[in-house]
Amino acid sequence: xxxxxxxxxxxxxxxxxxxxxxxxxxxxxxxxxxxxxxxxxxxxxxxxxxxxxxxxxxxxxxxxxxxxxxxxxxxxxxxxxxxxxxxxxxxxxxxxxxxxxxxxxxxxxxxxxxxxxxxxxxxxxxxxxxxxxxxxxxxxxxxxxxxxxxxxxxxxxxxxxxxxxxxxxxxxxxxxxxxxxxxxxxxxxxxxxxxxxxxxxxxxxxxxxxxxxxxxxxxxxxxxxxxxxxxxxxxxxxxxxxxxxxxxxxxxxxxxxxxxxxxxxxxxxxxxxxxxxxxxxxxxxxxx
Length: 288
Hints:
- The protein is 38% helix and 20% strand.
- The protein is α/β, with parallel strands linked by helices.
- Helix 1 (8-19) packs across helix 2 (25-38), helix 1 packs parallel to helix 3 and helix 5 (101-113) runs parallel beside helix 6.
- The chain is elongated, with a radius of gyration of 21 Å.
- The N and C termini lie far apart (64 Å).
């Protein structure tokens, strides 16, 4: 690196120089804030950081390593090994997707609409466990189960549940050949399954394509709703009458998802836009 980092201010300047062309400027600023927060001397909540505060030689070696990995396209969450999601600390490894803001919106909707809920919740394709953990934390009267086909993802999710000291039952199971899942009975089903069509890979950033697990992201263009259909088939068995489903969806598939929910005879189906005004969430209620 051409610039020597001596103060907190230098971190932002150096990141801007080293990552120009790799990340947009607002994202570089966000990365600088995240890195600064990792330094031991800046971890106190609500502290106003002095931009001229010196950076120790020990911390400098960590920052240099972070910058080198960022230049390679590695997401900051994987570099640091964790991320924040709905006020929960979530482990971040290449076995799981990095939690997104859109998924926080899904969790927030479920919590707002079910504050007094005391029953079971099942999170299909739990991945990092972020949805299940946040729901367990903020709907504390409920009992939450997270399922995933990946044993590595389940291990990460369990670690994150322990970090947040919340109870979640994690099951390794396959929705295309379900075993333990079918014994569950629940009033709420939630899922953020793979929904990015293979044809959409060309518009995605390399830090997603090179690092995040394909199995958790992509579906074949010939059947992009396959996961939703399978979950709704399972819901016929495990979702209680008047039970609710909440899905995060591909913004391009809103009308197709409405049709799918109608075919499974759900009522009160509603398509919800995210903070970027894109169709992102669909919900419905099981009849009878």
